[in-house]
Write a structure and sequence with these properties.
The protein is of the alpha/beta class and 354 residues long. The chain has helices at 20-31, 50-63, 84-92, 121-130, 150-165, 179-187, 205-209, 226-236, 254-257, 272-282, 289-301; strands at residues 3-8, 11-15, 36-39, 71-77, 96-101, 134-136, 171-173, 192-196, 243-245, 308-318, 323-326, 329-332, 340-349. The protein has a single domain, classed as Metal-dependent hydrolases (TIM Barrel). It has an 8-stranded parallel sheet with strand order 2-3-4-5-6-7-8-9, with helices on both faces. A 3-stranded antiparallel sheet has the order 1-10-13, covered by helices on one side. It is globular and about 55 Å long. The two termini are 32 Å apart. Bound molecules: N-carbamoyl-L-aspartate (NCD) and zinc ion. Zinc ion binds at residues 14, 16, 40, 248, 250. The site of zinc ion (ZN) has 5 residues, from loops.
């Protein structure tokens, strides 16, 4: 007999959908399982104004499969020129749910990001005033700092001073990859949370580098050593509401990944929930998957819980991964490296209609 697990329909609090043909190819993969997703603004050029967010949202809605109830929650890409009035107007209109901070040069399409963090004071103070969260890519870009130390260094050099300077600011430390990041969030009394990706719960740096280089496991922040992966798993499955799912599903075509200078990003949207069920079961925490994937994030963002559910079903373990064809070329789906027994069976309405 197969096992079933029915949970509130999840949300993805960190998602890259891209634009054009790639958007059309990847959007159904998230819309199939998730009710809402926080859409990252690192397009080229980036989504920096309320006007940009409005037009990007319209393109996403136009690309949605017919009948889909998926809601894209938009973000603005913070620059040193971001205007506080534009941010508050976009927030008041319900057009944006957060603002995203990329240190300049930290990751894919971050050239327009921030160099001088002191110049953000007016906009951060406005965000604190109106309760609009700041999502942070937490890595320093100083070439002197080893890539494996960049998250821990960012917390010390940038994030903590910034939070002390604007104490009312609500911050999400995105895709946290270190025990230091987890400890920092745990020590924060309020106004701080963190997203965790699916892939960082599965891979450590050996998966990328030992026995051959595996570009499909390369993402930023780069996966760290095993002790950190253990800390991330512990936080994700602990039931602590400050930790919730942001897949950071970040599609790049195989041509862009398998190159002398390959792009960073793992495409996990299609099999994220099946992998998470596997991970949570392994940790003896299946009953906490709903909190992590469907409840904690909405609570942090002050949004209603989803009313629909999805059911996960356990059957024969089958290999996962493969390729999705896109208008821009083939795109490899994240391979967790083990067969998956769980799969998403399909949505259903929660309870009976009134
Ligand atoms: C993301 C992308 O490709 O846009 N890549 C990644 O490795 N996570 C950017 C990001 O979130 O850092
Ligand atoms: Zn990302």
């Amino acid at each position: 007999m197969s096992e079933h697990l029915t949970i509130t329909r999840p949300d993805d609090w960190h998602l890259h959908l891209r634009d054009g043909a790639m958007l059309v190819a990847v959007l159904p993969e998230s819309a199939r399982h998730f009710a809402r997703a926080l859409i990252m603004p690192n397009l080229v050029p980036p989504v920096t104004t309320g006007h940009d967010a409005r037009t990007y949202r319209a393109r996403i809605l136009a690309a949605l499969p017919r009948g889909s109830g998926f809601t894209p929650l938009m973000t603005l890409y913070l620059t040193e020129q971001t205007c506080p009035d534009d941010v508050s107007a976009a927030a008041a209109e319900g057009l944006i749910t957060a603002v995203k901070l990329y240190p300049a040069g930290a990751t894919t399409n971050s050239a327009s990001g921030v160099r001088d963090f002191d110049r953000l004071r007016p906009v951060l103070e406005r965000m604190a005033e109106i309760g609009l969260p700041l999502c942070v890519h937490g890595e320093v870009t100083d070439p002197e700092v080893d890539i494996f130390d960049r998250e821990a260094m960012f917390i010390e050099r940038v994030l903590d001073p910034l939070r002390r300077a604007v104490p009312g600011l609500r911050v999400v430390l995105e895709h946290v990859t270190t025990a230091e990041g987890i400890a920092y969030v745990r020590a924060g009394e309020r106004n701080i949370a963190a997203t965790l990706t699916t892939h960082h719960l599965v891979i450590n740096r050996n998966h990328i580098l030992a026995g051959g280089i595996r570009p499909h496991y390369y993402c930023l922040p780069v996966a760290k050593r095993e002790t950190h992966r253990r800390a991330l798993r512990e936080a994700a499955t602990s039931g602590d509401p400050r930790f919730f799912l942001g897949t950071d599903s970040a599609p790049h075509t195989d041509a862009a990944k398998l190159s002398a200078c390959g792009c960073a990003g793992c495409f996990t949207a299609p099999n994220t929930l099946a992998i998470l069920a596997h991970v949570f079961e392994e940790e003896g925490a299946l009953s906490r998957l709903e909190g992590f994937a469907a409840q904690h994030g909405a609570a942090f963002y002050g949004l209603p819980q989803n009313r629909e559910t999805i059911t996960l079903e356990k059957g024969e373990p089958t290999p996962s991964g493969g390729t999705l064809e896109t208008g821009e070329g083939p795109l490899t789906i994240f391979d967790p490296g083990f067969p998956l027994a769980w799969r998403v069976a399909g949505p259903s309405a929660k309870g009976c209609p009134p």
